[in-house]
Amino acid sequence: MKFWKKALCASAVGVATLAQAQPAPQAVTVYSSRIENLLKPTLDQYTQQTGVKINLLTDRGGSLSERLAAEGKSSPADVLITVDMGNLHNAAERGLLRRIDSPMLNANVPANFRDPGNRWWGLSQRERTIFYAADRVKPAQLSTYEDLADPKWKGKLCLRTSKQTYTQSLVAMMIAKHGVQQAEAITRGWVNNLAGDVFTNDNSLLKAIAAGQCDVGIANTYYYGRILSREPEFGQGVKLFWANQGANQGGAHVNLSGAGVTTHAKNPEGARKLLEWLSSEGVQTAYTHGTFESPINTRAKADPIVQAWGKFTPSPLNAADIGSRQAEAIRLLDRVGYR
Questions:
Q1: DSSP state, 114?
Q2: Distance CA 211, CA 108 (A)
Q3: For 226-273, how does the pLDDT look when each residue is reduced to its tens digit (9 = 90+)?
Q4: What is the pTM of this model?
Q5: How far apart are CA 320 and CA 309, in angstroms?
Q6: How far apart are CA 197 and CA 286, in angstroms?
Q7: β-sheet bridge partners, residue 295
Q8: Closest by CA position to 235, among listed 254, 255, 221
Q9: Do 329 and 168 form a contact (C-beta atoms < 8 A)?
C-alpha cells in the first residue's frame, strides 16, 4: 500500500475512534408542574437540536418543591419549572434554587418578571383580568379590580377559590400596591359581592358567566383562550376586559410560569443552557402557542387568539415583591372569609 493510502486509512480510523470517544452530552433532568403534553414537544425539539436528552418528571408545583426539599443533595433534578410567582419565590427562599449569572436570560426576560437575585426567571406570562357577560354588562361599566368591590356589583361577581395560588398572588399584588389595610377592604368587598360559591377552576367560572350565574368575574386569560380554541362562539357571550388601564390605575395583573436551576443540580451548565434556549425569541413561540399564554420575550409573537385580545398595560410591580407577600395574602383572605 502506498504511503498516502496508509496515511488516509490511519486518519479514517483515527476519526472514527475519536468520534466513538466523544461522550454523549450530559442529560438534563427537569421537574415541571406544567402539563406534560404541552411542554414535552418543546423539550423534544431541544434534544433534536442539541443531542441533549431531557429527563422529564411532572407533578403539582407544591409537590415538586416538597420532593426537591426531601431529596436534598441526592436529587436528580437540574431544573424546576413551575407556575405562579408565589411558588417561584417560595422555592428560591427555601434554598431549592441556585443563583445563575446569565446575561442572555436577563436580556430575554424583563426585569419585573425575574428574581432580582438571579434564582428564577419567568418563561411565559399569565394575565389575570376581568371577564363579563356581553348581554348584561357594558364595557363602560367596568374599570378596575378595585371597582368590583363596589356594592353595585352585589350578587353579580364570580371568583375562584382562595386556596388557588392565582387568587393569592392577585391579592398579594393588591397588598403590594395598596398596603394591607386597603387591600383587605377591597377583598372584603369582593366577598360581599359574590353571586354564589367560589369556583375551583377558571374554566368553570367563565362558563358560569355564560350561563347567567354571574355577570362579571376574574380569571386567567389562557383559560379563555383554551375555550375559544374549541368554541369560537363563546367569545360572543363572554368577553375579556383589560383591568386597570386608566391613568394611575396600575395596569393589569400578570402572573408567570417560570423556572430556575436547582441548588443540587448535577448539570447546572446544561440547565442554564436549556433555560436560555427556552427564553429565546424563536422557542417562545413553541412554548406559548397552544397554551394561550403570552411570551415572556417581548420580541416573540403570541398565539393569534391571544393577539386578538389587543395590547394592554401590565402592572409594573416586581414578581418577586408580589411573591414575597403571598403568606400575608393568605392570612388576609382568611380574615375576610374568602373561602
A1: B
A2: 41
A3: 999 999 999 999 999 999 999 999 999 999 999 999 999 999 999 999
A4: 0.89
A5: 27
A6: 37
A7: 124
A8: 221
A9: yes
Give yes or no for residue 67 having a pLDDT over 90.
Answer: yes
Cell numbers that stand for 319 in this block: 414578581
What is the rounded average pLDDT for all residues in the chain? 93
240 CB contacts (<8 Å, ≥6 apart)?
129, 130, 131, 221, 224, 309
Element (H, E) at 283: helix 281-288
Three-state DSSP state, 105: helix
pLDDT at 123: 97
CA–CA separation, 249 vs 246, rounded Å?
5
Q: How much is the pLDDT for 20?
A: 56
Contacts of 73 (CB under 8 A, 6+ apart): 264
17: pLDDT confidence band, cut at 50, 70 and 90? low
Give me the amino acid identity at 161.
T
Pairing outcome for strands 79-83 and 28-32: parallel
Which three-class secondary structure state does DSSP give residue 126? strand
Best CA proximity match to 183, nearest among 195, 202, 169: 169
Cell numbers of 216, please? 362579571
What the block records as the C-alpha cell of 338 is 374568602
C-alpha cell at 155: 350578587
Q: How far is the C-alpha of 296 from the C-alpha of 278, rounded, in Å?
A: 10
How far is the C-alpha of 306 from the C-alpha of 83, rounded, in Å?
19
Q: 249: which 3 cell numbers?
A: 390605575
Distance CA 139, CA 10 (A): 78
- Coil, strand, or helix at residue 190? helix
Amino acid 8: pLDDT: 44
Distance (Å, rounded) from C-alpha 75 to C-alpha 264?
Answer: 7
pLDDT digits (tens, 9 = 90+) for 287-321: 898 899 999 999 999 999 999 999 999 999 999 99
